Amino acid sequence: MMPQSQQMPDDQRVEELIRRILRAGTSAAWDIAGQLGPNERIDLATACWRRSHFHDVGLAIAALCDKESMIHRLGTVVGSILYEQSRQKSASAGPKSFSPARRITLASSSVRSVSP
């Protein structure tokens, strides 16, 4: 019997990995990506990078990938762009820098009433 990751088409496997990250929180993305092979890691990084709410997660995962593999998997233009952006992000923020989305809170001060 083949492992589950080899039975699923690539896009379904990536979607399952994204669901795992959503359930566990974006801070778990680093651990999840670290358990993947190079091509699967590149696919996950690309899928996250293309989603606005996961863009930084995609860059952090891409920072785990080497340029040559990214170019081979994604093509020269996309592979190079994703590689360079991931290095710029990781250089400015350091490793394991992504964090869950910030919470939006409402002001706790008293509400002013407006007279008509």
Termini Cα gap: 74 Å
Q: Flag low-confidence runs.
A: 1-7, 94-101
Total DSSP E strands: 0
Number of domains: 1
The Cα radius of gyration reads: 18 Å
Query: Biggest sheet: strands, sense, closure?
Result: none
Number of helical segments with 4 or more residues: 7
Shape: globular
Order of helices and strands: HHHHHHH
Estimated helix fraction: 55-70%
Helix-and-strand structural type: mainly alpha
Tell me what portion of residues adopts beta-strand conformation.
under 5%
Mean pLDDT: 79
Q: Would you write up a description of this structure?
A:
The protein is mainly α and 116 residues long. It has one domain (9-93). The protein has 7 helices and no strands. The chain has helices spanning 4-7, 10-24, 29-34, 38-49, 55-62, 67-74, 76-93. Helix 2 packs across helix 4 (38-49) and helix 6 runs antiparallel to helix 7. It is globular, with a radius of gyration of 18 Å. The protein starts with a helix and ends in a 23-residue tail after the last helix.
Supply database-style keywords:
mainly alpha; 61% helix; globular; single chain; 116 residues
Short description:
The protein is mainly alpha-helical and 116 residues long. It has one domain.
Topology (SSEs and partners):
Elements: H1 4-7, H2 10-24, H3 29-34, H4 38-49, H5 55-62, H6 67-74, H7 76-93
